[in-house]
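Q: How would the structure tokens look for this protein?
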Amino acid sequence: MPILPLAEQDHHVPGLLWVAPFAALLLCIAILPLLKPTEHWWHHNRNKLTMAVILGLLTLVYYQFRGYGFGHGEHAADAGFESVLSVLDHAVLKEFIPFISLLFSLYVISGGIGVKGDIPAHPLTNVIFLATGGVLASFIGTTGASMLLIRPLLATNAERRNVVHTVVFFIFIVSNIGGTLLPIGDPPLFLGFLKGVPFLWTLGLWKEWATALAILLFVYYVWDRAAYRRETVRDIVRDETQVRSLTVTGKLNFLWLAGVVVATATLDTSKPFPGTDWTPFPYLREIVQLAFVGLSLVMTSGLIRRENNFNYTAILEVACLFIGIFVCMQVPIEILNAKGGELGINTPTRFFWATGVLSSFLDNAPTYVVFFETANAMTTTAGPGIIQLVGGHFVREDHLIAISLGAVFMGANTYIGNGPNFMVKSIAEHAGIKMPSFFGFMVFSVVVLVPTFVLINLIFLV
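A: Here is the predicted structure in token form.
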């Protein structure tokens, strides 16, 4: 393919064929765990990494030989190997490393906090568990809050037989919707932060977050009261008499979690440290985050993590997949930057449902990026209702609200919408709870979540 003149490069759009590696990787995540022939094979992280690397290399081959450069303006790279290096710099150094460093820090530090006990599993008790997780998820991440609370919730309900709905609502609230208020709460929002959304902007979503939680907690309370009445007298007696007070160990880790939050918010290399003229050097944020991980590992008893059945499998799974996702998604992002305004997705309602539906069946983090770039491409100047992103770009605030809510909220619709969903399902099944199938879980979503999201849309996005 001939090399285009520089004046034409900025206007060249990749062909849709080269979105295939990105689409293939997302389809692997969505489908391979569900098929009997590939279920066991996909379980191993080395196979996930193999697929991610192969598809990532296909994308890099495209950038090597496509004949024109990567990027725009003064930051544009020349065609060939310089474009490959520019893609790797953008996808790996600027996005993947900050992303995985934050998730790793929250995952490991929260794994050093132990919550044990078995209190009577009254409906109000379970509501308090879910509400607590719905708040904590924004501050220690949906993964951290899920791993922290699912085991004590299961222990509390161990004497009851009707527990499936409690785990399902836990996934809805703690593993997804609870992470709305800060970028560290859910991976899509952190990717938005990396792309220039101010750190505290997501706090402005508190009304939508509180409304969704209030609806779901009310529905859960009514549901669990009915389920509690179906329990046998024997199980109720066991639940009331086999009691152990809740205890929390590893409390020092809350300090390290707070340190990670502060470091993430303030050590941004694109702007000065608050109140000073000093700008943090590259990767200082990640170094500080990992330093808090080191403090957690050194100063927390290993017994706590053993009792939590803590291991690195889940976070390694995220790392193996997302190294490929970040490379492969550069092509669709280029297309959306050039053609995003032509898709017909131009209202908050359309952004909400388009982002949400894809987040339900793919992965909500790359889905967020795709529609974020679409909204970004549609907004070129400042004005009322426009957010100026760090780095000089602009996005309509109502579009950004819709995209953020769609990605975070509707990641709860299926087991594959957000990473913690499958982790919670697996822990519950190991505890002897027969969880719904993929489509059985979707029945809960259609009955409970879809009407909730329709209300959120009508109240806040119309």
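Residues 1-10 have pLDDT under 50 and may be disordered.

The chain has 20 helices and four strands.

Upvote if useful.
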